[in-house]
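On clarity, I found the account of how folds are encoded harder to follow than it need be. What matters is that the chain and its backbone geometry are given together, residue for residue. For the editor and my fellow referees, an illustration may be useful. For illustration, here is how one protein appears when written out as sequence plus structure tokens:

___
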Amino acid sequence: MASMTRRSALGTLAGAALAPLARPAIAQPASTLHFIPSSDLAALDPIWTTGYVVRNHGYMVFDTLFSLDSSFRIRPQMAEGHTVTDDGKTCTIRLREGLKFHDGTAVLARDCVASIRRWAARDGFGQTLMAHTDELAAVDDRTIRFRLKAPFPLLPEALGKLSSPVPFMMPERLALTDPSQQIKEAVGSGPFRFLASEWRQGASAAYSRFDGYVPRNEKPDGMAGGKVVNVARVQWHTIPDASTAMSALRTGQVDWLEVPSPDLLPLVARQRNVTISTLDPIGTYVMLRFNSLVPPFNEVAVRRAVLRAVNQNDYLQPMVGDPKLYRECKAFFPCGTPLSTGTGSAVMDGKLDEARAMLKASQYDGRKVVILASADLPLLAPLGEVTADLLRRLGMQVDLVTTDWGTLLARRASQKPAEDGGWNIFHTTAVAPEFMSPASHLGMRGNGPAGWAGWFTDPKMEALRTAWFAAPDEAAQRKLATEMEQQAFDMAPYVPLGQIQQPTIFRNVVSDIVPASAAVFWNLRKS
């Protein structure tokens, strides 16, 4: 049977796959926004998993005590404000009046205390915060109090972090769920209610405006500010095939496609009723992650050889194509964020001959390097092939294993040697705020088998991170962050591959989408 290109698939696949959109089982109000997320909503608990699609679901259903604006400044959200007393050892947070959960109950301080504890059990920043905390208590219905062992100026930043897992506030009855277990329902105090009866895993999810939500009297700014909802309903449609998803947008069956395949953008570039845009002003950070636990990348010399060999443009161009949508960023803190120095040019120079010499001088024994690659995520799909080609030219044996993202994640969890079902390299992306701070930067942690997949071990990096938390001011924090970045270039826990502006596409019936590091549905309008 002849192979089918994505473009020819537009007509062939669209009819059957889009039929559910044309004949919805439930009558849709005129102000329903139809949206195709980057992947299926397979779980409801944004604390249990770090997946971005679940995080985006979380921002609809739940709310946070604090949040970051587009300038990375911390702002109160559910909190009315906070005070710090007792020489910095007591922090008191006051909730805004009128906060309600979707089940009609009032948001109380004890709900927030339970939510903070559950989030902190699964988050590195949260664990650091709780290690500094002697007591976390609800003083009254609207007052949360931290009694600290020592001043912790970053407490509001911890409770307003954008990276997954986000510290979302839940009813106490949900927040008391074991952190290692998923919550069974999605009931929050955010601007949208999750319509559980309409959730179809692998197909769709639905949300309706929560009329009991009281937004802040401020303009939206990044993930902060007033969350005013102007549509009655948002319908998520899972359409894994990139061509079918683009066809649904072109024909008006959906309004917004979160992550279009870059090679299909020319099909709509001149279509007047659609807009191709980028929403995140900083962009998405791209990386090649080593498994530092098993050979050959348990040896730093082998990791350094790959770091030296990489040419970032070889990765960025096939991801998004248009040079306007990517830039080199030879840095371990994303370019455009406060702590980034971008000083890696001397180390990451793409000199293959020098890299070959470095590899030859290492203890690499010729074993196969297992690269895990994702076939179903358009942005990540090319990266495995680029790395496989690079390593072969470098002089390494390669086994490129291409699967769907879910299967990749399952294998990525294995700490076994690659030949026994483990792995050596995978690629991923993160929105810039995810890695902008030592507090949330999983890739730079040196806490070994207890850390993020790759399990990099470096006591010096951990000591620098601890010192960063204790730094007395921003100047001291910046100095320590620079030392951490230099240590990362020396130890190579992963290879930075640059930054992309991830394109998104929507029909012109949609306006006023908030630029942010996640797809958000407040403020926008549909005409």
The radius of gyration is 23 Å. The first strand starts at residue 32 and ends at 36. Residues 1-20, 22-29 have pLDDT under 50 and may be disordered.
